[in-house]
Design goal:
The chain is of the alpha+beta class and 152 residues long. It has helices at residues 2-20, 37-42, 69-82; strands spanning 47-48, 90-99, 118-127, 130-137, 143-144. A 5-stranded antiparallel beta sheet has the order 1-2-3-4-5, with helices on one face. Strand 4 and strand 5 form a beta hairpin. Mean pLDDT is 75; it is low at 24-32, 34-49 and 57-65.
Length: 152
């Protein structure tokens, strides 16, 4: 009887060890800001200078305007800042990104940020040849980023 209890205890330990031994995937380094293919596939293709209609162009009536709520908010903010109408602003690009921390690619001096991945957008707008970069995050509306971090 004692032998059975011993073997039973050994089997319990062996099964526990086998069940607990699973390979762990290595942690990859995250670059400054990366385009998330999953987010990009789930949204419309990013706008670029090539596929954004020019203000006053013939294709304005047929092109869906504007792109998405986040880009619309960025255009509205820039129009208000500069005192121009939204149709004077060109969307150079609007792409989903994964920011490496809570600064959303726009860290402020002497600030510390949680080191967690943040889904968001990088939007580049242009007025009279000058570009303005907007960043956003899951819960943060787009904001003008005057000093983007490297890669941001």
């Amino acid at each position: 009887m004692r032998v059975r209890k011993t073997w039973f205890a050994i089997w319990i330990v062996v099964i526990g060890l086998i069940a607990g031994c699973r390979p762990v995937a290595p942690v990859a380094e995250v670059p400054e800001a990366t385009i998330d293919p999953g987010v990009a596939a789930a949204t419309k293709a990013p706008l670029t200078a090539e596929n954004t209609p020019e203000p006053g162009g013939d294709d304005m009536a047929s092109a869906p305007q504007p792109v998405d709520p986040i880009t619309t908010a960025a255009v509205a903010d820039l129009a208000a800042r500069l005192g121009v109408t939204p149709d004077q602003i060109t969307v150079v690009s609007a792409e989903p990104v994964v920011w490496p921390d809570a600064s959303l690619g726009c860290p402020q001096p002497d600030m510390m940020y949680a080191q967690v991945l943040q889904d968001g957008m990088r939007i580049v707008l242009s007025v009279d040849g000058k570009e303005y970069v907007y960043h956003s995050g899951e819960t943060k509306a787009p904001f003008l980023c005057e000093n983007p971090a490297a890669g941001g």
